[in-house]
Amino acid sequence: MAVASSSRRGDRIYRGVAAAAGIGVALIALGVGVSLVASSWPSIREFGLSFLVTDRWSPVTEQFGALSSVYGTLVSTVIALVLAVPLSLVIALFLVELAPPWLARPVGAAIELLAAVPSIIYGMWGLFVFAPFMAEHVQPALKGALGFLPLFEGPPMGIGMLTAGIILALMVLPFVTAVMRDVFTMVPPVVKEASYGMGSTTWETTRKVTVRYGFSGLIGAVFLGLGRAVGETMAVTFVIGNSHDISVSLNAAGNSIASTLANEFTEASEPMYLSALVELGLVLFLITVIIQVGAQIWIGRTVKRAGGGL
Amino acid sequence: MKRRPNTFRKLQDLFVKVLSSAAALLGIFFLGWILFEVGKRGLGAFDAAFFTSLPAPPGAEGGGLANAILGTLIITAIATVIGVPLGIMAGVYLAEVARGTKRAAAVRFVVNAMMGLPSIIVGLFVYTLLVLPFGRFSGFAGAVALAIIMLPVVARTADDMLSLVPSSLREAALALGAPRWRVTFAIVFRAAKAGLVTGVLLAIARVSGETAPLLFTALNSVYWPSSLMEPMGNLTVTIFNYAMSPYEDWQRAAWGASLLIMAAVLGTTLLARFVFKEKKR
């Protein structure tokens, strides 16, 4: 009996520790929200809702508005997704449908390695290698071809919204590709074979069968990329230009919520300045929570419908 | 379905095939471009002093990043010591203790969402928790921030890997009279070892290249790490400061630090893939 009771005590401890760890991790997420609200309370009380709709950012007069940062976050994210989603789709298509296995594996591994490169390395490379390349080749070419649009106004400085968006696209590409590849592999072969049997080409089968079959999974992949791009910090901080002005031109310098935090946080000596920066973080936190919860619910629904296939 | 001439369809198909091959090539090209530039510019910064000396003021001869290298190792090690056991126990909770319950589903939901939390937000959180009350930046706060970033990654892979272990193994051990905790740690863990190691390695790789959370917590320092409660030098924040500086020798050192970090992170990532593959075979 002694053995049984000691093992029962062991099991109680085991369950207790595991539950504390599991629930503790979840509580940290709650703690993040609570602590951000608490630390940004002075700024929330001072500026109220106008924080979100004014673009004035002046530490000297202690006037703070998040608009330019929110705008920059959204624009750079949209550029990233516009570039990364179609690219990921065709790369996943290449990996699953076109490349022979001996080629698909190393190519897939190389794409995945793009995800392992630290954000700060993208920043270094972006600032010293890619931005000059943009300034010399890409931006002048865009200006020549599409200069009549206000989107490409201004001198080609290399850094700016467009460069940040392109580097972000590169960074989210491996994540989106990985999910899309999984979605493609999960389409039952018999469905595709039926399509091929009717004489469809690879592209027709992909567009009309595979993509439709896995559509909700593909949306999940976009969510994942969205979540990544919105909160990416270091790479963006290096190349976005860090200006609180809002400009239509993609060549112009801008900022994002994350880049503002990275740049200004250690300079913020006044309590109100600090509080405003934390409130900026709170806004980013809320944006990511909405994206993540949305993605989870979306994926959960998909799993139910597909019977656990995804 | 509307019929189109065959040649058009075939041309369209060929176009997409070429396009998707080109896209894959583009991805590899960018990876190669980054690796090449960091390798080329980073190697030039390496000399004996780089690994053994403290930073020198801009323009001065010599100087290295030995303190930052050590600091990064210390911060990452402490983060691992805090984050891995906690993360694995959270995974045990999800996969073993509360398996199939509503509460486990709720915790899993939150953990999944946490994986998408930007690391800079975690840094901000730890700042309000461990820096503001104590009035100073510290290496310890940096380690806690990295540990929090590791937690959901470790917990999720542990959850996945433990769930893959067949129930018959647990039942057999339980039938022999083994207590639950021994079944988990002696039987299930052994079966899931490769997966757990992979998850831990990937989590370490992920946080050792982190910069943003350290900006608000460990900050940086030009001295040898002396206390965990002081700001601590580290490679990534050094890269950030040096790269943004106008001094050429500082920028050179930043490239060296980049190469070091990149080699460590990519090496760990490849090692993790290797461990996992060995097991599968």
Number of strands of chain B: 0
What class would the helix/strand composition of chain B place it in? mainly alpha
Give the biggest sheet of chain B.
Answer: none
The sequence of SSEs of chain B as H and E is HHHHHHHHHHHH
List the helices and strands of chain A in order: HHEEHHHHHHHHHH
Q: What characterizes the major β-sheet of chain A?
A: 2 strands, antiparallel
Helix content of chain A: over 70%
Unreliable spans of chain A = none
- Cα-atom radius of gyration of chain B: 24 Å
Mean pLDDT across all amino acids of chain A: 90
Strand segment count of chain A: 2
Strand fraction band of chain B? Answer: under 5%
Q: Unreliable stretches of chain B, pLDDT < 50, 5 or more residues?
A: none
Model description:
The complex is a heterodimer of chains A (310) and B (281). Chain A is built from twelve helices and two strands; from the N terminus they run ααββαααααααααα. Chain A is mainly alpha-helical and 310 residues long. Chain A has a two-stranded antiparallel sheet. The mean pLDDT of chain B is 92. Chain B has twelve helices and no strands. With 281 residues, chain B is mainly α. Helix content of chain B is 75%, strand content 0%. In chain B, helix 11 runs antiparallel to helix 12. The interface between A and B is large, with 87 and 86 residues.
Structure, briefly:
The complex is a heterodimer of chains A (310) and B (281). With 310 residues, chain A is mainly α. In chain A, 77% of the residues lie in helices and 1% in strands.
Write the layout of secondary structure elements.
The complex is a heterodimer of chains A (310) and B (281).
Chain A: H1 2-47, H2 50-53, E1 57-58, E2 63-64, H3 67-98, H4 101-116, H5 119-146, H6 161-186, H7 189-197, H8 202-213, H9 215-231, H10 234-239, H11 257-264, H12 271-306
Antiparallel strand pairs in A: 1-2
Helix pairs in contact in A: 1-12, 3-4, 3-6, 3-9, 3-11, 4-6, 5-6, 6-9, 7-8, 9-12, 11-12
Chain B: H1 6-43, H2 48-52, H3 66-97, H4 102-115, H5 119-131, H6 139-164, H7 167-175, H8 180-191, H9 193-208, H10 212-215, H11 235-244, H12 248-280
Helix pairs in contact in B: 1-12, 3-6, 3-9, 4-6, 5-6, 6-9, 7-8, 9-12, 11-12
